[in-house]
Each structure stands twice: as structure tokens, then as C-alpha cells.
Predict the 3D structure of the following.
Amino acid sequence: MKSVFGALALVICMAGPALAADIPAYDIKETCREIAAAGGGSKMIELQCRKDEAASQKRLQKASVPADTMRTCDQISQTLGAGSYMILEQCIKDELDAAAQLQ
């Protein structure tokens, strides 16, 4: 998780306001219901999912992410359902890491 925070901090410093994109609005409750249902309907999984999704959402709200990265990762994060801030956050980190390595 430290690397996710580092990557997001880097984005905040490097991306200008013109490049920044708002984070999409996902339904955390719906996302976590879907995840819990896939795990047999576990209430423990649903509760932890909600906490983790809210934490990712909060970190993303403080980040400045290039619009093209946000679009790509938004599509990826919605591939399996209602959208996930945890998947979005990890995708952004991975995309930015890959872009840095390609330079």
C-alpha cells in the first residue's frame, strides 16, 4: 500500500490542473454487495470491502490524475460490475508506473 500512496503523491505533484480528472462516482454499497455475494454472502467481507472502498475513494479525492489515465482506469474498474475505487486506485498506480518506465 505504501507504493500506492507514493504514486498518488507523485501524481499530485506532477499533474497540472488542466490534466486533472474528477474521480467517477461509484456505489460502494452495491460494489461491496456484489463482492460479498461472490464470496457466499459474507457480511464480514461486505463490511471490510466498504471500509477499503471508502479509504481508496478518500485518497483518490486528494489526487490529481491525468484525464486519459482516469478514463482508462475507470473502464477497467467497471469491468466486473458497479465500479471499484480500490481497483481504480491500483490501476492508476500501475498505469503511472508503466508510463514512467517507458520514458
User: Anything to note?
Assistant: Strands lie at 20-21, 65-66. The chain has five helices and two strands.
